[in-house]
Amino acid sequence: MAGKQLCHCSGALTAREGFPGLEDTGASYYSIHPLFPVSDKYAAWRELSGAFFCLEGEGPHLPWWQETLTALGAQVRLVPSAEKAAYHAACAVASNLVCALVQESVTLLSRCGFSQREALDALTPLMKANLDHLCQVGPQEALTGPVERGDHTTVAKHLACLPAGPGRQLYRVASQILVDLAREKHPDVDYQPVTDILKEGSNP
Asked: Please, what is the average pLDDT of the chain?
């Protein structure tokens, strides 16, 4: 194994975790993870141009992998092995957890008479416009809506229409993070009424 390079594409595992027991073989081992939703293993590669790749591992070839991927048009970042879990959690929040948020929106719109397809069609322009703006200026500047306005009455109405359970908890927790963003954006606004409404156990 001396002189060999072993690579895996897991975002969650470090190179050492992916290849346990290889420390004394003389091989180098790396993880090469694309920040891209690979939903179809036969077609997703066509959309990888310009994707962001994160590298991690142990061995002398990291600069070579970085240069090679960059030459192919990718953006590349080295990730410390000790922070691989935090890196993958960030990816999951920005990608997988969005599915939970959209599903909650679809569920609420179904109460208004929308089919799933109709709900997705209605939400698509909103989500795309918001995502474009968010990616351009960041979460704080892109923030709009009742939390940003300090509109605790509307936040209370939202909570009241959500049944007790994961959906309401999701709204509470995500909105608490939005309050922090809003306070940084508008330090002169009193967000305590919103914070009080969002506390677990408060009415509704």
From this structure: 91
pLDDT tens readout for residues 55-82: 999 888 999 999 999 988 888 999 999 9
What is the Cα–Cα distance from 7 to 21, expressed in whole angstroms? 15
Q: What is the DSSP letter of 146?
A: H
Count of beta carbons in the 10 Å neighbourhood of residue 191: 20
| Residues β-bridged to residue 35 | 52
Cα–Cα distance measured from residue 98 to residue 46, given in angstroms and rounded to the nearest whole number: 23
DSSP strand pairing (28-35 vs 5-8): parallel
pLDDT digits (tens, 9 = 90+) for 100-138: 999 999 999 999 999 999 999 999 999 999 999 999 999
Contact 152, 179 (CB under 8 A): no
Tokens read off for 96 = 């997988």
State the Cα–Cα distance between residues 93 and 62, nearest whole angstrom.
Answer: 27
Closest-CA residue to 184 (of 132, 154, 143, 130): 143
Token pair of 199 as six digits: 């506390």
Using the structure block, give the residue that is written with the tokens 């909650």.
104
Going by C-alpha positions, the residue among 122, 202, 204, 194 that lies closest to residue 159 is 204
Question: DSSP 3-state assignment of 172?
Answer: helix
